[in-house]
Specification:
This protein starts with 10 loop residues before the first strand and ends with a helix. The model has no long low-confidence stretch (mean pLDDT about 95). By secondary structure, it is α/β, with parallel strands linked by helices. The protein has a 6-stranded parallel sheet with strand order 1-8-5-4-2-3, with helices on both faces. The chain has a two-stranded antiparallel sheet with strand order 6-7. It is globular and about 70 Å long. It folds into 2 domains: about 170 residues, Rossmann fold; about 200 residues, Dehydroquinate synthase-like - alpha domain (Dehydroquinate synthase-like, alpha domain). The chain binds 5,6-dihydroxy-NADP (NZQ) and zinc ion. The site of 5,6-dihydroxy-NADP has 33 residues, from helix 2, helix 5, strand 6 and helix 7.
């Protein structure tokens, strides 16, 4: 295991009707004027928005609001939010929604405290050091942004989807009420489940040895997802299954299962080009890319893939031919994705083979660049993975 420091100070308030506590929580973390930031209207239709406002009013907290965050959130809304926060003297941002609203809130939080263009944090020009405090009321188990120090935004100039990371954007608190996720369409639930599993796999596939504790934590999250996801696809109101998935989504991405080990994240980078170009759900893009990536890199460490196959997918180890077991595990993952309604190839996603050169170009490795932790990839490798996903 490698040396690490782990600091995850977000306060999680979990359970039924917990959104009623958001006013008190904002106050606890020093907020007096809040921007409520939300998406395309699901939180208004469900009545959550009114309950959040009621809680803020009861706590004596002032607020203004900015809705309209799109999935794969855009830079334009971030600029709008920064302006509004400055004009209204906002000192706390409350994201109500999914990863997109939370990521947009984080971008605004950084932008308000920075003299330059907020995009500098996403283009890699600057590291974020200061941000307004952010709180969240989560409505979908997926991105893990409720517990992460990450934000992913698409710049409308060039449709580049890029991430920024910094401890200052980790939410101060996150309200996780599984009841709020019962209104999700099955497809969106499945996209979220795929993303959660992908966050674990990005950490599971590592070159670091002697990481049994985090290996087993990863496997526990994956096994729970395999057990619970079909339950909520069948019955969207299964509270206990929703609760397990919601916590899995947080655990999968606040890095508790990834500390002390090298991680990969190439599948995420390769997927982000798809959701930037086609505006598909991130989880759906991952369902297409991640099994292709696994197939492409399996020879790098056949035994690690065989371990996944046996421990996660209950495959029987073939000691004469471990690669056979490894490939069975990847096939089981793909079947699972299909069974929950995910696309598993380019055409099902609505992606086009003729776009592959563009996708490789915007991935940005050029002729000589390499990226990745578990297996280093070149532009040619990225192209091969897109082709495997066809
Ligand atoms: O916009 P509204 O109307 O709220 O509808 C949303 C949206 O259409 C809907 N939805 C959310 N909760 C709902 C609901 N509909 C009915 N009932 C509910 N309870 O679902 C749609 C998707 O919402 P979104 O916020 O986009 O989903 P998700 O949480 O999957 O976020 C995806 C974004 O997060 C990024 C992805 O790249 C993508 O842009 N990621 C962020 C990460 C991070 N910050 O740490 C890590 C991830 O790997 C990921 O890259
Ligand atoms: Zn993800």
């Amino acid at each position: 295991m490698e040396n690490f420091s782990f600091y995850s100070p977000t306060k999680f308030v979990f359970g039924k009707e917990t959104e009623s506590k958001c006013g008190a929580l904002v106050k606890e973390f020093g907020g007096s004027k809040v921007l409520i930031h939300y998406g395309g209207g699901s939180v208004v239709r469900s009545g959550l928005f009114d309950r959040v406002k009621k809680s803020l009013i009861e706590a004596g907290v002032q607020f203004c609001e900015l809705g309209g965050v799109t999935p794969n959130p855009r830079s334009g809304k971030v600029y709008e939010g920064i302006e509004l926060c400055k004009k209204e003297n906002v000192d706390f941002i409350l994201a109500v929604g999914g990863g997109s609203s939370i990521d947009s809130a984080k971008a605004i939080a950084m932008g308000v405290c920075y003299d330059g263009d907020f995009w500098d944090f996403y283009s890699g020009k600057e590291r974020p050091k200061k941000a307004l405090p952010v709180g969240t009321v989560l409505t979908i188990a997926a991105a893990g942004s409720e517990g992460s120090g990450d934000s992913v935004i698409t710049h409308e100039n060039g449709m580049l989807k890029r991430g920024a990371s910094g401890e200052c954007i980790r939410p101060k608190f996150s309200i996780l009420n599984p009841q709020l996720t019962t209104t999700l369409p099955a497809y969106q639930t499945a996209c979220g489940a795929t993303d959660i599993m992908a966050h674990v796999f990005e950490r599971y596939f590592t070159n670091t040895t002697d990481v049994q504790t985090t290996d087993r934590l990863c496997e526990a999250v994956l096994l729970s997802m395999i057990e619970e996801t079909p339950k909520v696809i069948k019955d969207p109101n299964d509270y206990q299954a929703r609760a397990n998935i919601m916590w899995a989504g947080m655990v999968a991405h606040n890095n508790i299962v990834g500390v002390g080990r090298e991680q990969d994240w190439n599948s995420h980078g390769i997927e982000h080009e798809l959701s930037a170009l086609y505006d598909c759900a991130h989880g759906a893009g991952l369902a297409v890319i991640m099994p292709a990536w696994m197939t492409y890199v399996v020879d790098h460490d056949v035994m690690r893939f065989a371990q996944m196959a046996c421990r996660v997918w209950n495959c029987k180890m073939d000691f004469q031919n471990p690669k056979k077991t490894a490939l069975e595990g990847i096939a089981a993952f793909r079947s699972f994705l299909k069974s929950i309604g995910m696309p598993i190839n380019f055409s099902e996603l609505g992606a086009k083979e003729s776009d592959i050169p563009y996708l490789v170009k915007t991935f940005g490795l050029g002729e000589t660049g390499k990226t990745g932790g578990f297996v280093q990839l070149t532009s040619k490798d990225v192209e091969n993975i897109y082709r495997l996903a066809l």
